[in-house]
TrEMBL record:
Metabolic or biological pathway, per its Swiss-Prot or TrEMBL entry: Cell wall biogenesis; peptidoglycan biosynthesis
Protein name: L,D-transpeptidase
Database matches in Pfam families: YkuD (PF03734)
PANTHER family (alphabetical): L,D-TRANSPEPTIDASE (PTHR30582), L,D-TRANSPEPTIDASE ERFK_SRFK-RELATED (PTHR30582:SF24)
Protein's organism: Methylobacterium longum
Compositionally biased region (Basic and acidic residues): 11-21
L,D-TPase catalytic domain residues: 98-234
Length: 236
């Protein structure tokens, strides 16, 4: 199945240019809209752990990353449902270890670990009308990628025209710190799995078909995902 284009993240390419900060109209969300945890690491496996302890443990995992090219602030985990915190879960699948499985119906991304378990991440996914499913693979990877708005987006949002030649990588760039570019049959689908700094977006459908993880989760997944990794997107 050939995947149609993703308006939110189309045209991305690697970029090392200096950070560019757009106007208030050109923020990450407006563009998007046009170490794994063990089972008990957050107390999710036991009934006696308090919410405050769960939140404190999550804050450690989703803390600031000052050594990045563009230092990443801590994620506001209070705005994320705890069920979307990164953790290791039992997962029965015939897919090989390393495969990425996207479950848009439940807002999860899994990395198969090959021992009956998977690392599970909370995600944002495509909104109604932009959902898709099928098999793809990671055709390339990029850090702090340059983002180029497609012509269709520029037509809808003329203020995006200033980035027609590319928006440099940085904290305000819609692709964030890391991007996995999805391909089918040698062709770029225009869909990505990308890093999001918008904690409130996790567990929602807001994109034009791309899949976003919190920056800390995306960096964790990216480091463990080589080019050619299989990606399975389940029906929503």
């Amino acid at each position: 199945m050939r995947i149609a284009g993703c308006n939110a993240e189309a045209g991305a390419r690697d970029g090392d240019a200096r950070d560019g900060r757009p106007s208030a109209l050109l923020n990450r969300r407006s563009f998007l809209v046009g170490s794994a945890f063990g089972v008990g690491a957050l107390g999710l496996g036991g009934c006696g752990t308090s919410d405050s302890l769960i939140l404190a443990e999550a804050a450690k995992i989703y803390g600031p990353m000052p050594n990045e090219k563009f230092p990443i602030p801590a994620a506001d985990v209070s705005k994320v449902n705890p069920k979307y915190y990164r953790r290791t879960v039992a997962y029965d699948t015939k897919e090989a270890a390393g495969t990425i499985i996207v479950d848009p119906a439940n807002f999860y991304v899994y990395r198969v670990e090959g021992d009956g378990s998977a690392t599970r991440y909370g995600a944002n996914v495509g909104r109604q009308g932009f959902l898709w499913n099928g098999d793809a693979y990671v055709g390339r990877k990029s850090e702090w990628a340059t983002w180029t708005p497609p012509k269709e987006m520029i037509k809808r949002q003329p203020e995006a025209a200033k980035y027609a030649r590319g928006m440099p990588g940085g904290l305000e760039n819609p692709l964030g710190a890391r991007t996995l570019h999805l391909y089918q049959n040698g062709a770029y689908t225009l869909y990505t799995i990308y890093a999001s700094s918008d904690a409130e977006s996790i567990g929602t459908g807001i994109t034009s078909g791309c899949v976003g993880l919190l920056s800390q989760d995306m960096i964790h997944l990216y480091a463990r995902t080589p080019v050619k990794t299989k990606v399975v997107v389940l029906p929503a």
